[in-house]
Protein backbone atom coordinates (compact mmCIF):
# COMPACT_ATOMS: atom_id res chain seq x y z
CA UNK A 1 0.00 0.00 0.00
CA UNK A 2 1.16 3.53 -0.72
CA UNK A 3 1.73 4.47 2.89
CA UNK A 4 3.72 7.58 3.39
CA UNK A 5 4.78 8.65 -0.08
CA UNK A 6 4.15 12.13 -1.38
CA UNK A 7 1.65 11.05 -4.00
CA UNK A 8 -2.08 11.06 -3.41
CA UNK A 9 -3.62 7.64 -2.58
CA UNK A 10 -6.33 6.80 -5.12
CA UNK A 11 -9.11 4.27 -4.51
CA UNK A 12 -11.65 3.19 -7.13
CA UNK A 13 -14.75 1.71 -5.55
CA UNK A 14 -17.67 -0.46 -6.63
CA UNK A 15 -15.86 -2.73 -9.11
CA UNK A 16 -17.92 -5.64 -10.44
CA UNK A 17 -16.12 -7.11 -13.43
CA UNK A 18 -12.65 -8.16 -14.62
CA UNK A 19 -12.78 -5.23 -17.03
CA UNK A 20 -13.32 -2.82 -14.12
CA UNK A 21 -10.40 -4.31 -12.19
CA UNK A 22 -8.10 -4.22 -15.23
CA UNK A 23 -9.02 -0.58 -15.83
CA UNK A 24 -8.39 0.48 -12.21
CA UNK A 25 -5.13 -1.48 -11.86
CA UNK A 26 -3.95 -0.40 -15.31
CA UNK A 27 -4.63 3.25 -14.49
CA UNK A 28 -2.45 2.96 -11.37
CA UNK A 29 -5.04 2.94 -8.58
CA UNK A 30 -3.69 2.23 -5.08
CA UNK A 31 -6.85 0.50 -3.88
CA UNK A 32 -9.94 -1.12 -5.34
CA UNK A 33 -13.25 -1.60 -3.54
CA UNK A 34 -15.89 -4.33 -3.76
CA UNK A 35 -19.31 -3.49 -2.35
CA UNK A 36 -20.92 -6.17 -0.18
CA UNK A 37 -23.56 -3.78 1.17
CA UNK A 38 -27.05 -3.41 -0.32
CA UNK A 39 -26.36 -1.59 -3.59
CA UNK A 40 -26.64 -1.90 -7.37
CA UNK A 41 -22.85 -2.41 -7.15
CA UNK A 42 -23.11 -5.32 -4.78
CA UNK A 43 -21.06 -8.43 -5.57
CA UNK A 44 -21.08 -11.83 -3.87
CA UNK A 45 -18.05 -13.36 -2.15
CA UNK A 46 -17.38 -15.74 -5.06
CA UNK A 47 -17.32 -13.03 -7.71
CA UNK A 48 -15.22 -10.80 -5.47
CA UNK A 49 -12.78 -13.66 -4.73
CA UNK A 50 -12.24 -14.20 -8.45
CA UNK A 51 -11.66 -10.46 -8.96
CA UNK A 52 -9.37 -10.16 -5.92
CA UNK A 53 -7.18 -12.95 -7.33
CA UNK A 54 -6.46 -10.74 -10.34
CA UNK A 55 -5.29 -7.76 -8.27
CA UNK A 56 -1.52 -7.32 -7.82
CA UNK A 57 -0.21 -7.19 -4.25
CA UNK A 58 0.72 -3.49 -4.46
CA UNK A 59 -2.99 -2.63 -4.72
CA UNK A 60 -5.08 -2.73 -1.55
CA UNK A 61 -8.30 -4.74 -1.90
CA UNK A 62 -11.23 -3.44 0.15
CA UNK A 63 -14.60 -4.95 1.08
CA UNK A 64 -17.33 -2.34 1.64
CA UNK A 65 -20.10 -2.92 4.22
CA UNK A 66 -22.97 -1.02 5.79
CA UNK A 67 -24.85 -2.08 8.91
CA UNK A 68 -24.25 -5.79 8.44
CA UNK A 69 -23.78 -8.25 11.29
CA UNK A 70 -20.14 -8.78 12.28
CA UNK A 71 -20.36 -12.47 11.36
CA UNK A 72 -21.47 -11.55 7.84
CA UNK A 73 -18.66 -9.00 7.49
CA UNK A 74 -16.13 -11.61 8.60
CA UNK A 75 -17.51 -14.30 6.28
CA UNK A 76 -17.55 -12.04 3.22
CA UNK A 77 -14.14 -10.52 3.95
CA UNK A 78 -12.57 -13.93 4.49
CA UNK A 79 -14.40 -15.56 1.58
CA UNK A 80 -13.36 -12.90 -0.89
CA UNK A 81 -9.79 -12.50 0.36
CA UNK A 82 -9.87 -8.69 0.64
CA UNK A 83 -7.20 -7.12 2.85
CA UNK A 84 -9.21 -4.19 4.15
CA UNK A 85 -12.73 -3.68 5.49
CA UNK A 86 -14.61 -0.42 4.95
CA UNK A 87 -17.58 0.18 7.25
CA UNK A 88 -20.25 2.77 6.42
CA UNK A 89 -22.97 2.19 8.98
CA UNK A 90 -23.48 2.47 12.71
CA UNK A 91 -20.83 -0.11 13.58
CA UNK A 92 -19.40 0.50 17.03
CA UNK A 93 -15.97 0.56 18.60
CA UNK A 94 -16.22 -3.08 19.62
CA UNK A 95 -16.82 -4.11 15.99
CA UNK A 96 -13.77 -2.13 14.88
CA UNK A 97 -11.69 -3.60 17.71
CA UNK A 98 -12.73 -7.17 16.84
CA UNK A 99 -11.93 -6.74 13.14
CA UNK A 100 -8.62 -4.98 13.89
CA UNK A 101 -7.61 -7.87 16.16
CA UNK A 102 -8.23 -10.22 13.23
CA UNK A 103 -5.79 -8.28 11.08
CA UNK A 104 -7.85 -6.29 8.61
CA UNK A 105 -6.93 -2.75 7.71
CA UNK A 106 -9.99 -0.72 8.72
CA UNK A 107 -11.53 2.16 6.80
CA UNK A 108 -14.34 4.12 8.44
CA UNK A 109 -16.80 5.69 6.01
CA UNK A 110 -18.32 8.75 7.69
CA UNK A 111 -20.83 11.14 6.17
CA UNK A 112 -20.28 14.87 6.57
CA UNK A 113 -23.58 16.47 7.59
CA UNK A 114 -24.12 20.21 7.93
CA UNK A 115 -20.40 20.84 7.88
CA UNK A 116 -19.71 18.59 10.90
CA UNK A 117 -16.49 16.74 10.10
CA UNK A 118 -15.76 13.60 12.16
CA UNK A 119 -12.31 13.21 13.70
CA UNK A 120 -9.76 10.65 12.62
CA UNK A 121 -9.39 7.56 14.82
CA UNK A 122 -12.63 7.89 16.81
CA UNK A 123 -13.44 4.22 16.17
CA UNK A 124 -9.86 3.00 15.99
CA UNK A 125 -9.86 3.02 12.19
CA UNK A 126 -6.64 3.09 10.18
CA UNK A 127 -8.10 5.32 7.49
CA UNK A 128 -11.03 7.74 7.73
CA UNK A 129 -13.15 8.20 4.59
CA UNK A 130 -15.15 11.43 4.56
CA UNK A 131 -18.14 10.99 2.31
CA UNK A 132 -21.57 12.38 1.48
CA UNK A 133 -24.33 11.34 3.91
CA UNK A 134 -25.52 8.68 1.42
CA UNK A 135 -22.44 6.68 0.37
CA UNK A 136 -22.01 5.85 -3.29
CA UNK A 137 -24.69 8.35 -4.33
CA UNK A 138 -22.41 10.60 -6.38
CA UNK A 139 -23.32 13.57 -4.19
CA UNK A 140 -20.70 16.05 -3.08
CA UNK A 141 -20.47 18.10 0.10
CA UNK A 142 -18.65 21.23 1.19
CA UNK A 143 -15.01 20.13 1.02
CA UNK A 144 -13.89 23.49 2.37
CA UNK A 145 -15.39 22.50 5.75
CA UNK A 146 -12.41 20.19 6.30
CA UNK A 147 -9.81 21.76 8.51
CA UNK A 148 -7.31 20.49 11.00
CA UNK A 149 -6.15 17.06 9.88
CA UNK A 150 -2.49 16.51 10.65
CA UNK A 151 -0.03 15.49 7.91
CA UNK A 152 0.24 11.95 9.35
CA UNK A 153 -3.51 11.33 9.40
CA UNK A 154 -4.66 9.07 6.62
CA UNK A 155 -8.01 10.23 5.33
CA UNK A 156 -9.79 9.87 2.03
CA UNK A 157 -11.99 12.45 0.41
CA UNK A 158 -15.05 10.95 -1.33
CA UNK A 159 -18.50 11.94 -2.51
CA UNK A 160 -19.35 13.19 -5.97
CA UNK A 161 -15.77 13.31 -7.21
CA UNK A 162 -14.93 13.04 -10.90
CA UNK A 163 -12.03 13.92 -13.19
CA UNK A 164 -13.37 17.45 -13.58
CA UNK A 165 -13.60 18.39 -9.90
CA UNK A 166 -10.99 16.25 -8.12
CA UNK A 167 -8.27 18.89 -8.61
CA UNK A 168 -10.30 21.62 -6.92
CA UNK A 169 -11.44 19.24 -4.18
CA UNK A 170 -7.86 18.21 -3.38
CA UNK A 171 -6.69 21.83 -3.42
CA UNK A 172 -9.47 22.79 -0.98
CA UNK A 173 -9.29 19.89 1.48
CA UNK A 174 -5.70 18.56 1.16
CA UNK A 175 -6.64 14.91 1.76
CA UNK A 176 -4.22 11.99 2.06
CA UNK A 177 -6.19 10.28 -0.72
CA UNK A 178 -9.39 10.22 -2.77
CA UNK A 179 -12.11 7.65 -3.43
CA UNK A 180 -14.57 7.55 -6.33
CA UNK A 181 -17.39 5.40 -7.61
CA UNK A 182 -20.22 7.23 -9.46
CA UNK A 183 -17.85 9.68 -11.16
CA UNK A 184 -16.21 6.88 -13.17
CA UNK A 185 -19.49 5.26 -14.26
CA UNK A 186 -21.70 5.64 -17.35
CA UNK A 187 -24.73 4.47 -15.38
CA UNK A 188 -25.20 3.29 -11.80
CA UNK A 189 -22.87 0.34 -11.25
CA UNK A 190 -21.39 0.38 -14.74
CA UNK A 191 -17.79 1.55 -14.75
CA UNK A 192 -16.13 3.14 -17.78
CA UNK A 193 -12.39 2.40 -18.20
CA UNK A 194 -11.70 5.74 -19.92
CA UNK A 195 -13.29 7.64 -17.01
CA UNK A 196 -11.24 5.62 -14.51
CA UNK A 197 -8.01 6.45 -16.37
CA UNK A 198 -8.99 10.12 -16.62
CA UNK A 199 -9.83 10.26 -12.90
CA UNK A 200 -6.55 8.68 -11.79
CA UNK A 201 -4.60 11.06 -14.05
CA UNK A 202 -6.45 14.11 -12.74
CA UNK A 203 -6.05 13.01 -9.11
CA UNK A 204 -2.33 12.33 -9.55
CA UNK A 205 -1.71 15.71 -11.09
CA UNK A 206 -3.68 17.37 -8.29
CA UNK A 207 -1.82 15.65 -5.47
O1 LIG B 1 -21.40 2.28 -3.58
C1 LIG B 1 -22.39 1.98 -2.92
O2 LIG B 1 -23.49 1.77 -3.47
C2 LIG B 1 -22.30 1.87 -1.43
C3 LIG B 1 -23.35 1.32 -0.74
C4 LIG B 1 -23.30 1.20 0.64
C5 LIG B 1 -22.20 1.62 1.33
C6 LIG B 1 -21.13 2.17 0.66
C7 LIG B 1 -21.17 2.30 -0.72
N1 LIG B 1 -20.12 2.88 -1.41
C8 LIG B 1 -18.98 3.41 -0.77
C9 LIG B 1 -18.17 4.22 -1.71
O3 LIG B 1 -17.83 3.71 -2.74
C10 LIG B 1 -17.90 5.66 -1.46
O4 LIG B 1 -19.04 6.17 -0.88
C11 LIG B 1 -17.57 6.32 -2.78
O5 LIG B 1 -16.24 6.39 -3.01
C12 LIG B 1 -18.13 7.68 -3.00
O6 LIG B 1 -19.17 7.45 -3.83
P1 LIG B 1 -19.46 8.38 -5.07
O7 LIG B 1 -20.03 9.64 -4.53
O8 LIG B 1 -20.43 7.57 -5.84
O9 LIG B 1 -18.17 8.59 -5.82
Automatic annotation (TrEMBL):
Transmembrane segments: none
Pathway(s) the chain acts in: Amino-acid biosynthesis; L-tryptophan biosynthesis; L-tryptophan from chorismate: step 3/5
Gene Ontology MF annotations: isomerase activity
EC number: 5.3.1.24
Record has Aminoacyl-tRNA synthetase as a keyword: no
Catalytic activity: N-(5-phospho-beta-D-ribosyl)anthranilate = 1-(2-carboxyphenylamino)-1-deoxy-D-ribulose 5-phosphate
Domain of life: Bacteria
SUPFAM superfamilies in the record: Ribulose-phoshate binding barrel (SSF51366)
Key words of the record: Amino-acid biosynthesis, Aromatic amino acid biosynthesis, Isomerase, Tryptophan biosynthesis
Domain N-(5'phosphoribosyl) anthranilate isomerase (PRAI): residue ranges: 10-201
Record family assignment: Belongs to the TrpF family.
Entry-linked HAMAP family: PRAI (MF_00135)
Name the record gives this protein: N-(5'-phosphoribosyl)anthranilate isomerase
Gene this protein is translated from: trpF
Amino acid sequence: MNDAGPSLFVKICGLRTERDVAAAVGAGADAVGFVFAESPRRVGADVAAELVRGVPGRVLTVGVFRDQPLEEVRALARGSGVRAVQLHGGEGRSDYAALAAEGWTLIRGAGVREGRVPSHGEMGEDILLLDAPVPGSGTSWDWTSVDGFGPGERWLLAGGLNAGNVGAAVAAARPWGVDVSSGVEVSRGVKEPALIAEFVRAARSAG
